[in-house]
Write a structure and sequence with these properties.
Elements lengths: L1 H4 L1 H19 L5 H24 L1 H7 L12 H22 L1 H19 L6 H22 L3 H24 L1 H7 L4 H5 L1 H18 L2 H4 L5 H23 L3 H27 L1
Helix pairs in contact: 2-3, 2-7, 2-8, 2-14, 3-5, 3-6, 3-7, 5-6, 6-7, 7-8, 8-11, 8-14, 11-13, 13-14
Length: about 270
């Protein structure tokens, strides 16, 4: 059962909420931030369980060791577990504030819809993942009642995530074609996917100086956001030169590094 909900992914979702709370609260972590962490982890676990339910036929071929296709857990049990986790996460969010409740309820619906349909719908699925990643940071901000700075982080995270998802789609074209997925690169070609990915990454870069320009953060933020921008530019350069799977893999890694540096920039700005 623990394998079904993927505890590490749940922990990462909770950490994203904490980062959002730290950025929004200027380094302070009220009790509500801890409740938000648990709520996000529960909803993330529910999303993972639902994903395995809808992927059970594909996993029977590609990942027969997963809990459902291996027979260690029934599909019905996975659905019941997901429902319980979704419910518990939304209830905890309601204890924090009405905005947290609304976002938790919305994201529960989005996670279910993504696994059931949007995951296989190309750009719609990429945009959904971007939204979910960005909203996790926003949830942390809502928990402490401040979203001005963390709102910029959420938008940057969403934009850069969509860009990276498109690049990953180029990397996975061969496997996705065998699985019958209708990803953006498969429908419109790797070249158009790369161009769109660069557009999303460029938008993230464009708004990255805002916390410094608006005097929300100082030099500590700037010192780390500049390397993040450089890493994003490197990712764009890699995918421009080549759309082969190996190049897309390197570009995806560069995006991941850039996103990590961006998170550190926001934390440094909040704590400085």
């Amino acid at each position: 059962m623990f394998e079904l909900v993927r505890p590490l992914n749940c922990l990462l979702a909770g950490l994203a909420v904490l980062i959002g709370a730290v950025v929004a609260g200027g380094g302070e972590l009220p009790y509500a931030a801890g409740v938000a962490l648990v709520a996000a982890a529960l909803i993330s676990g529910a999303g993972n369980a639902v994903n395995d339910y809808f992927d059970r036929d594909i996993d029977a071929i590609n990942r027969p060791y997963r809990p459902i296709p291996s027979g260690r857990l029934s599909a019905r049990t996975a659905v019941i577990l997901a429902g319980c986790l979704f419910g518990a996460g939304v209830v905890l969010a309601a204890l924090i504030s009405p905005p947290c409740f609304a976002l938790a309820a919305l994201n529960s619906v989005v996670l279910f819809t993504y696994s059931a349909e949007l995951k296989r719908r190309g750009l719609a699925g990429n945009l959904t993942i971007g939204y979910l990643v960005g909203s996790t940071f926003l949830f942390g901000g809502l928990a402490v009642g401040e979203i001005s700075v963390v709102g910029i982080l959420a938008i940057m995270a969403a934009l850069s995530t969509v860009g990276r998802e498109l690049i990953k789609g180029i990397e996975d074209m061969r496997g996705d074609k065998k699985l019958g997925f209708r990803t953006f690169p498969l429908r419109y070609g790797a070249g158009k996917a790369a161009a769109l990915a660069i557009g999303f990454i460029g938008a993230a870069i464009a708004i990255s100086p805002l916390p410094y320009v608006l005097e929300l953060f100082g030099w500590a933020y700037l010192a780390l956001v500049v390397p993040s921008i450089v890493a994003f530019i490197a990712a764009a350069a890699i995918i421009v030169r080549s759309r082969k799977p190996e190049a897309a893999g390197r570009a995806s890694l560069a995006c991941k590094m850039a996103m990590g540096l961006g998170l550190l920039a926001f934390l440094a700005g909040a704590l400085a």
